[in-house]
Amino acid sequence: xxxxxxxxxxxxxxxxxxxxxxxxxxxxxxxxxxxxxxxxxxxxxxxxxxxxxxxxxxxxxxxxxxxxxxxxxxxxxxxxxxxxxxxxxxxxxxxxxxxxxxxxxxxxxxxxxxxxxxxxxxxxxxxxxxxxxxxxxxxxxxxxxxxxxxxxxxxxxxxxxxxxxxxxxxxxxxxxxxxxxxxxxxxxxxxxxxxxxxxxxxxxxxxxxxxxxxxxxxxxxxxxxxxxxxxxxxxxxxxxxxxxxxxxxxxxxxxxxxxxxxxxxxxxxxxxxxxxxxxxxxxxxxxxxxxxxxxxxxxxxxxxxxxxxxxxxxxxxxxxxxxxxxxxxxxxxxxxxxxxxxxxxxxxxxxxxxxxxxxxxxxxxxxxxxxxxxxxxxxxxxxxxxxxxxxxxxxxxxxxxxxxxxxxxxxxxxxxxxxxxxxxxxxxxxxxxxxxxxxxxxxxxxxxxxxxxxxxxxxxxxxxxxxxxxxxxxxxxxxxxxxxxxxx
Length: 488
Prior knowledge:
The chain is mainly alpha-helical. Helix content is about 65%, strand content about 0%. It has 21 helices and no strands. The chain has helices at about 30-35, 40-50, 55-80, 85-90, 90-95, 100-130, 140-160, 160-185, 195, 205-215, 220, 225-230, 240-265, 270-275, 280-285, 290-320, 325-350, 355-380, 400-415, 455-470, 470-485. Helix 1 crosses helix 8 (about 160-185), helix 2 crosses helix 13 and helix 13 crosses helix 14 (about 270-275). The chain is globular and about 65 Å long. The two termini are about 30 Å apart. The model is unreliable at about 1-5 (pLDDT under 50).
């Protein structure tokens, strides 16, 4: 793909050496722009919903944000070492064909995330237009128009590809950051410190639950695309720098926004309750009217930024599943699915937070298991990937690594047994939590029921299991690489 090309044609194939010119610091922009959205403030209400106080919530949220994006940074190393997207890189651990299993999870996760962001943008548009008196109490028409426009913008951006996205992010980063600072300045008077600091402390399981939700909603929600940007990094880029810029870009905005969101939600129970149905609309309720249009435009742009990244990467993941179509067409297909999901939640679902939280914990478990396995695989490898073998089932990575697939299955079985769905409007997930009783954690109504610790357990099982069971396999592959290098 030429640097000046308007549309990126490169799909999941190996990035050409002459195109690998990016520097680690350039990773800051896409990660920062995708996570600076005021949507991050909504997590303040959701974390306090676990029954913990402001100090506890702030500590656990910041830890969850930083830790989750550090995981993204580690996974991003695979992009530099293999010159391929994230889910192609994971073939080293799962086998060329076996990687399709986590690939399906990755695709569903990306689709779910980009749909959630699109839904939030549509709901916000309707609410703010009503406050401006431009529509009546019937939101149907504005919802339809908003859904069409937002879906079209997301798909067009994703179809354009890497270089257009990177240029767009450089503009959105400054615009979104400035507007967010203005928002914070305007709503500071709404913070009531006496109310905020009077809330009682919550339990350890509740604290873990808040941290887990932040982890799944932040870094773990992006971990399956973490190497998609770093595959354009130069060969001599330092691993520590890639991890640093990924972590800083991803976590800086959310750490500040969630903390401020905690202040607002802790000061106003009404605001906290409103965030569950329409996150951006609720946050706009305390703004002066003159700032509604700038707030809406910036909120939508920041949401679109994250959704475009998601569509772009979900399109790449679709290609890894064996669907032989051009990358832009893959983005169009995912865009159609995004539109259908947006229509369902906006027009037929009773609330936003129920399906969203259920989505996070359900797909968060297998995604965490996959991340644990990949972190172990990356940590044990000291040499670049055999790029050709990542596309050849007869190569050194093989067609299937059954140990990894079985390990991921075990991690999911345990993890899903330790998470629960807390919302009645997402009752299709009530089958989870089946291990909370047998393991003496109080069952689905006990103290640990809301901790959703199964996500963390799945991550640990994946990492430790792969480190113990596949170390010999990795050493053999590394030895083969060194032997080939010496012969050359």
